[in-house]
Amino acid sequence: MLSNQTNDGGKRTSLHGHWSSRMAFILAVTGSAVGLGNIWKFPYIAGQNGGGAFVLVYLLCVVLIGMPVMMSEILIGRRGRRNPVATMQLLGKEEGSTGAWKWVGVIGVLAGILILSYYSVVAGWVLTYVVKSVTGTFTGQSAEVVSAVFNQFTGSWKSVVAAHTIFMALTVFVVARGVERGLEQAVRFMVPALLLLMLALLGYAISTGHFMEGVAFMFTPDWGKLGWNSVLAALGQAFFTLSIGMGAVMAYGAYLPEETSITGASAAVVVADTSIAILAGLVIFPLVFANNLSPAEGPGLVFHTLPLAFGQMSGGVLFSTVFFVLLSFAAWTSALGLVEPAVAWLVEHFHKTRAQAAVIIGTLIWFIGLGSALSFNVLGDVRFLNGTIFDNVDYVTSNVMLPVGGLLIVVFAGWIMCRNSTAEELGSAGTLYRIWRVLARYLAPIGILMVLGKAVGLF
């Protein structure tokens, strides 16, 4: 185990180094938060749950629940300066409670490993679609052909496993290089590139002549569609889209310089993450409507509906390629955040080098991911509880592990840590601090319990 390292000022330091600037941290956490779900899930859910009415509820959930949890996770990470397991154990004892809080860190590390095991499989599909786009596979094809291309690919276990392997290798390569040389250099390039690609596609979407139709679909308030389930969907989306509760934000927070405002950085991440989700809808739906396709495809929107749309449009090869490269960047930056807590734990607990830890954890995730990769072919008939192996890993992590982890994190920050500790990290004992404390102690836990209750069928 690591000793309680401090610098000359008595503050703890991270063994892994620090982000070189506030912007580097914001880009890293934004990259971790922005993933495949932002690109297709948010626009789809918004359109089906009241459009503008849903977006308003979603924004309220992000500000009142998501942001307090994110701030809690960052402040815990920066105060402990360790991997999530060691940080929770150290602070639990330091705050007069118990080292058993380490199990909150364990939940986060395991959640990251399990999520990336199936996320990598889907990201591998995206990488494959970059190649298919470049080679013009979808040009002028019918819906049946586009669907057959997807089914043929996922039905081949060799193809799916190969793509899964390539994506995990790319992730391990970046993480092995360290905080500044690996994570920071990657996000400094990929997050701005993702935004530029999104803006390029937005320009094309505006030119389709169906842009306002897409805007209306997403933002026209339809209060009749906004029921209790819609509110819970907004709450769940707000919680999960920020990548909180899985240790990634806590691990990144451990590398945050002391002088950086946690409140300001959290607000910047929330604005960036939400803006990209909204931009995705403004890109996707005009393309869907321009080609008389259904916007209600859900996950199929990415691998069925959009390739069909790109295949029918002028310049479709170029814009299809840009879109799937964008998705690849979004998936890659998210993967870095998912694997970092486990790598940091292995480095600190077993004194491995980052390269060794990255390879060990990456190999473990790759191996676990084989179950999800084979769920679409040779193990497709193996079904239990919620469906295939892929379905079950997705359900357990998203609906149980993440909300439980997030709940315990915000309870720890709001109720276990003393006022002096949290005020010192948040840099203020004024109005903003008091608002955070009320939200972290009361509103955020209640909101998360509602998500958990919905997941287990209590209402």
What does this protein structure show overall?
With 459 residues, this protein is mainly α. It has a single domain, classed as Hydantoin permease, CATH 1.10.4160. It has 18 helices and no strands. It has helices at residues 22-33, 36-48, 52-80, 84-94, 102-134, 143-154, 157-176, 179-207, 211-219, 228-241, 248-253, 262-290, 300-312, 316-350, 354-373, 389-416, 419-426, 431-455. Helix 13 packs antiparallel against helix 14.
What is the strand and helix layout of this fold?
Blueprint: H1 22-33, H2 36-48, H3 52-80, H4 84-94, H5 102-134, H6 143-154, H7 157-176, H8 179-207, H9 211-219, H10 228-241, H11 248-253, H12 262-290, H13 300-312, H14 316-350, H15 354-373, H16 389-416, H17 419-426, H18 431-455
Helix pairs in contact: 1-8, 1-12, 1-14, 2-10, 2-12, 3-4, 3-10, 3-12, 3-16, 3-17, 3-18, 4-5, 5-7, 5-14, 5-15, 5-16, 6-13, 7-8, 7-14, 7-15, 8-12, 8-14, 9-12, 10-18, 12-13, 13-14, 14-15, 16-18
Overall pLDDT score: 89
Number of domain modules? 1
Q: How many E-type strands?
A: 0
Order of helices and strands: HHHHHHHHHHHHHHHHHH
Low-confidence runs of at least 5 consecutive residues = none
> What CATH first level would be assigned?
Mainly Alpha
What is the SS-derived class?
mainly alpha
* Alpha plus pi helix count: 18
CATH architecture: Orthogonal Bundle
Share of residues in helices: over 70%
- The rounded Rg comes to 21 Å
What global shape is seen?
Answer: globular
Strand percent estimate: under 5%
User: Termini separation (Å)?
Assistant: 44 Å
Biggest beta sheet summary: none
CATH fold title: Hydantoin permease
